[in-house]
Amino acid sequence: MTNPLFYAKIILFGEYGMIEDSQGLVVPYSFYKGTLKFSETGSEFEKKSNIHLQKYAEYLENLVLMNDFILDIERFKADILNGLFFDSNIPQGYGVGSSGALVAAIFEKYSIKKHNPENISKDNLKNLKNVFGEMESYFHGKSSGMDPLICYMNLPILIENKENMDKVAIPKGEEGKGAIFLIDSGITGETGPMIQIFFEKMKTEGFRKTLKEEFIRYNNACIDTFLKKDMNPFFRNLKKLSHWAYEHFRPMIPESIFNIWKKGLDSNAYYLKLCGSGGGGYILGFTKDYEKAEKMLDGFHKEVIYRF
């Protein structure tokens, strides 16, 4: 039997805000994917991945997980000795869940009790997210568990707050003029340092206040209007959200993106926001007229992920 594929994920809304109890909307992205395989060629990539898995197995061995979510580490270690590696085209440091897909793949293959993503209850979803958070903390220092959860479920998830989340239906995409797209900043980002910057900012009362009173309000309004496909108020709130990030998330915006971020706000042709923690990797773009935005963003590599 071939191993299942685990897709990348994109946080459409809620980056950083979810740490402070904002809503979040996270969707799978099937352009990038990964799967566990046994090495046949012994290539450099396969060897490197295998060594990473060895180190990760040592970490997992010392992890105490809830009863329903215990992993068969001995089988995992035996497979690693037989050349197991993670065959993935998900770019690392791009905010699309490279470690999340790996965690989901390992959990699916080695959890002693099998879980069917389609039948997971709301309560178990929360438990699973917590387990994934512990498993993924190896890669980022601290993880919410959201990335692996999305990769594992392969369904859009609406995070209502820290305690509540549920599967959600995204409005069906159609071939309209509008689009949500990714822009490649040309550099990789590291999640850990960006999160450190955020927590430093959170120490100042002014930042905490504007995050709670403005960012979270615009973010939640974007999710609400997007899910209702109410595009005019959606873009109104999106502009406020993009402008807020330009003012307050400056260290997280890659230098190569500064000017085009401002250009979008000034022209109203498109609006940009962080995709994940920022610092590099992908930036998310939203536009009512992709053809126009594409011309204005000439020279940047772009990928359309949703049409409307």
From TrEMBL:
Keyword Electron transport: no
A Pfam family annotated for this UniProt entry: GHMP_kinases_C
One term under GO cellular component: cytosol
Ranges where the GHMP kinase N-terminal domain occurs: 84-153
Any one GO biological process: isopentenyl diphosphate biosynthetic process, mevalonate pathway
Known pathway: Isoprenoid biosynthesis; isopentenyl diphosphate biosynthesis via mevalonate pathway; isopentenyl diphosphate from (R)-mevalonate: step 1/3
GO molecular function: ATP binding; mevalonate kinase activity
Domain GHMP kinase C-terminal, chain residue ranges per copy: 241-301
Keywords, ordered alphabetically: ATP-binding, Cytoplasm, Kinase, Lipid biosynthesis, Lipid metabolism, Magnesium, Nucleotide-binding, Transferase
Keyword Oxidoreductase: no
Superkingdom, taxonomy of origin: Bacteria
Alphabetical list of InterPro entries matching this protein: GHMP_kinase_C_dom (IPR013750), GHMP_kinase_C_sf (IPR036554), GHMP_kinase_N_dom (IPR006204), HddA/FKP (IPR001174), Mev_gal_kin (IPR006205), Ribosomal_Su5_D2-typ_SF (IPR020568), Ribsml_uS5_D2-typ_fold_subgr (IPR014721)
Identification of the protein by name: Uncharacterized protein
Source species of the chain: Chryseobacterium fistulae
